[in-house]
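Two proteins were folded this term; both appear here.
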Amino acid sequence: MVTTIAALLTECGAIEFGDFVLSSGARSTYYIDIKTATTNPTVLGAIGREIADRFDFDVVAGVAVGAVPIAVAVSLASGKPFAIVRKSVKEHGKDGTIIGDVKGRDVLLVEDVTTSGGSALYGLAALRNAGARVSDVVTVVDREAGAAEALAQNGATLSALVRVSEILNG
């Protein structure tokens, strides 16, 4: 059965077909544009509520840029704080990779789309290095291309609101 999130993503045109190069470097005949989909408040709100209702955490975190709106939506739906994982340390102002208080806290890492898991692995390592306890990663869409296995090898469980097979075969 296709989930409500899958239906919303399909309805808002987040699934495109063609020839695409993904951030992992892999080629694909389809692209899942969660970043644009989450500019729609209905889609973003539904994602935030579903994650907030299904998972237990102290802080929700997302890697910039794609996962930040998702982390904010989950924070608003749950009433719990969020953190941002920067992709690099900035050279001005306050330094550090993490914006927000994660030390000693149970952190739920959220992602927009997972393929190989590279961005999630980066976020997992950065959060753990900052003293967070992170064992769960939630992605809006899992492309079912190795992210779950890569995260498992690093002591984390990947949960998906939608698997790409549900969208393509649904």
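Next, the second protein.
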Amino acid sequence: MKLLTLIRHAKSDWDNDLYDFDRPLNERGETDAPIMAEFLAKNLPKPDLIISSPALRAASTAEIIAEKCGYPVEKIKYIDELYLCSVSEYIEVLIEQSPKINHIFLVSHNPGTTGFTNLLTGELIEEMPTCGVAHIKLDLYKWEDVEPDTGKLVKLFTPKTI
């Protein structure tokens, strides 16, 4: 069995002229990310690997989560393809991971986070909110076996529900 925790980045700042990739977290994001990170550290198994989009808002969220979960920030794996990727690209990222890794935290963007959660679990989540988390159990022994409907949504966490 594998565990996958899909995390949408915390709320970001639109009040600037920065390129989308470079948008930082806004005040609410700076508040929500540590609260969610602490909740995850207390309520979920520690991740064996944290993978993140390299976009500033996702990377900042991943770093905050890593620090609170006792995961070395320098070991976060940044994958360019996770920036505004399609659902199929999530599968491509996962199948490349070692079968020795049992729990992955994956931090990225919408609509991909919502779409991938729905694809893996057969659930119908309309939109994962910022800093929302889908904790999924996958009935497989190697990541290369991940495909649609192989997961079960264990719990959906949002800043408003924790």
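The chain has a mean pLDDT of 95. The longest strand covers residues 2-8. These notes refer to the second protein only.
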